[in-house]
């Protein structure tokens, strides 16, 4: 036990240093490169590694059944772009979330392996729930309770970072020329639906349509505001497609909570496509889905998972039908550091009381620990990094946590002449990030949002700056 404690303390100390480094980068950063046609100076290296938790490991932060079995494995899949002033790294992880200094640790590890800096690394979670939900700052807080509460096994966490380092170092020597890019999109039928469609006469949310729904009244309500388009951005070495990135906005859960690890329907669709095209790396990114789920079309059954998998797979396939590669003539990477504030619903005293109350269920002690970690982060002024990769007329936007769909739609309106693909679930520290209009409506998402409502203006300002390609 003492060795595990020492390991945890050692890692947290290293992460604190990494966090301080990231916190020093407060100004917007950008780098642009104009490339002559048919003069490929860029290279791309793809990587993947297994991040499946071991038996007994907590799932979804420790408030559902821990790992009993593995239905299908979890992966981290990404790419490194070489040939810029410094490399750029983008990675999607089949985890529920990576929060605060854990997210900094991931970006730092990937950056060091690729020979770049953490501000040039985007790590986005896919957000399946039968998967790890990692906050090592909160893990430190719950460990002090000596009640067998656990969020993440640090040996497993560190092993994943070691795998990341090895995967990138092995991938870079195999990098291929990056010469062309293509975009495509297709409408997905009967998957996404808005969770916040039941609003009373007083303007308040009355009940929520969750990831799975069996309430006939909620099922009968319209889809509500969604983004029905599945977008694909593909990268080429000449005529050879070497990477395809797929983006769609919905919570990616069909059913969960029984201890059976799974990448769920979006991961299964990705794996089906990968099997068909083994020479092209396929990555799936979950869009801004804080208020979006498959609830209208998902009753939580095994059969529903199969149906949802097929619909996402068909969306991916259709989005790739009309890909038209064009030579890469310009590329840039932009970042914006966002310093958010704490939701006034929460105080350090109230959350500490909940954490220390031994009569509370584990979930009702672990969640307050995560809020306390967020408060400490805000006090330390450690920023969230928004980023965007611009290539020709395509922009790949990386947002934090469970951002509401409106941010994704807003990004598209900010650049109507560009193909904007959004990946959310980056740094998970804020938990949900509602838009300003949602706060007075209440509802589950607002009740667990760690940021105050001024985050809306901050997110919008940040997106405006980094989407100016």
Can you tell me about this structure?
This protein has twelve helices and 25 strands. Strands 1-20-21-22-24 form a five-stranded mixed sheet, covered by helices on one side. It has 469 residues and is of the alpha/beta class. The longest helix has 22 residues. Helix 1 crosses helix 2 and helix 8 packs antiparallel against helix 9. A hairpin with a 2-residue loop joins strand 21 and strand 22.
Q: Which spans have pLDDT < 50 for at least 5 consecutive residues?
A: 1-28
Instruction: Give the rounded overall mean pLDDT.
Output: 92
Strands of the biggest beta sheet: in what spatial order? 1-20-21-22-24
Structural classification: alpha/beta
Beta fraction of the residues? 15-25%
Assembly of the depicted chains: single chain
**C-alpha-based Rg, rounded:** 21 Å
Largest sheet: 5 strands, mixed
Outline type: globular
Distance between the termini: 51 Å
Q: How many beta-strand runs?
A: 25
* Helix coverage percent: 25-40%
* Alpha plus pi helix count: 12
């Amino acid at each position: 036990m003492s060795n595990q404690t020492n390991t945890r303390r050692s890692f947290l100390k290293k992460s604190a240093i990494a966090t301080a480094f990231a916190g020093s980068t407060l100004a917007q950063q950008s780098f642009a490169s104009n490339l002559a046609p048919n003069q490929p100076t860029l290279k791309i290296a793809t990587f993947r590694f297994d991040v499946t938790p071991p038996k007994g490991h907590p799932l979804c932060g420790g408030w559902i059944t821990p790992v009993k079995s593995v239905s299908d494995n979890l992966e981290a899949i990404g790419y490194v772009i070489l040939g810029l002033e410094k490399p750029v790294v983008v990675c999607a992880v089949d985890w529920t979330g990576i929060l605060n200094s854990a997210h900094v640790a991931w970006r730092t590890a990937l950056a060091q392996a690729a020979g770049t800096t953490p501000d040039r690394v985007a790590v986005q979670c896919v957000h399946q729930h039968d998967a790890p939900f990692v906050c090592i700052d909160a893990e430190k807080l719950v460990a002090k309770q000596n009640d067998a509460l656990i969020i993440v096994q640090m040996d497993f966490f560190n092993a994943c970072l070691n795998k990341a380092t090895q995967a990138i170092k092995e991938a870079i020597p195999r990098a291929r020329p990056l010469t062309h890019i293509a975009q495509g999109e297709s409408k997905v039928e009967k998957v996404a639906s808005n969770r916040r469609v039941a609003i009373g006469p007083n303007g308040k949310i009355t009940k929520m349509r969750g990831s799975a729904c069996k309430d006939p009244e909620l099922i009968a309500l319209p889809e509500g505001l969604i983004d029905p388009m599945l977008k694909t951005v593909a990268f080429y070495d000449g005529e050879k497609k070497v990477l395809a990135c797929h983006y769609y906005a919905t919570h990616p859960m069909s059913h969960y909570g029984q201890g059976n690890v799974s990448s769920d329907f979006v991961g299964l669709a990705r794996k089906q496509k990968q099997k068909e095209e083994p020479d092209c790396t396929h990555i799936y990114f979950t869009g801004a889905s804080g208020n979006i789920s498959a609830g209208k079309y998902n009753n939580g059954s095994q059969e529903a998972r199969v149906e949802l998998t097929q619909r996402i797979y068909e969306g991916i396939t259709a989005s790739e039908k009309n890909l038209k590669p064009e030579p890469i003539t310009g590329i840039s990477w932009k970042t914006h550091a966002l310093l958010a504030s704490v939701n006034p619903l929460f105080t350090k005293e109230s959350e500490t009381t909940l954490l220390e109350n031994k009569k509370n269920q584990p979930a009702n002690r672990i969640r307050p620990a995560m809020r306390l970690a967020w408060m400490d982060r805000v006090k330390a002024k450690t920023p969230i990094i928004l980023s965007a990769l611009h290539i020709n007329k395509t922009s790949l936007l990386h947002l934090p946590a469970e951002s509401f769909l409106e941010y994704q739609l807003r990004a598209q309106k900010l650049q109507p002449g560009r193909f904007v693909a959004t990946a959310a679930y980056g740094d998970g520290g804020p938990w949900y990030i509602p838009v300003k209009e949602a706060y007075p409506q209440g509802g589950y998402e607002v009740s667990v949002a760690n940021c105050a409502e001024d985050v809306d203006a901050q997110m919008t300002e940040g997106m405006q700056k980094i989407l100016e390609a």
